Amino acid sequence: MQISFEDEKPIFIQIAEGIEDAILTGAYVEEGQIPSITEFSVNFKINPATALKGINLLVEEGIIFKKRGVGMFVQKGAVEQLKNKRKEQFFDHYVKNLIEEAKKLRISSQEILRMVERGFDE
C-alpha cells in the first residue's frame, strides 16, 4: 500500500482503499487481523487519527470489525462485499461515461464490445 501526499484524494480515503485492495488481493484474509492504527500511522508517517478515520470507514461498511482489546479484523464475506462495491463504482465511474461518449459519437454497442475485446487482446 502506498500513500501519496500530493494526491487530491484525502489520506484517510487512501488508507481505506489500500486496505480494501489488500483484502481483495488476499494480503489481509477474511477473519484475519489487519495492522493496528499505530502501525499504519508509523509506517506511513501520518497522524493516528487519520489512520483511524480510514479504518472507521471500513468498520461502518461492515468490512472490518473490532475485537475489543485484541485489534481489527476482516469481516467474513468482505471480499464478496468489496467486489460488489467496486463493480458498482466501476460501472458508475467508467461504463456510464463510456456509454455517454459513445452515444455522442454514435458508436454502437457492438463496436464498443469489439473495442473492449481488442483492449483485452493488446
From TrEMBL:
Pfam families: GntR
Keyword Zinc among record annotations: no
Record keywords, A-Z: DNA-binding, Transcription, Transcription regulation
Domain HTH gntR-type: 9-77
PROSITE patterns in the record: HTH_GNTR
Designated name of the protein: GntR family transcriptional regulator
Origin species: Acetobacterium fimetarium
Taxonomic classification: Bacteria, Bacillati, Bacillota, Clostridia, Eubacteriales
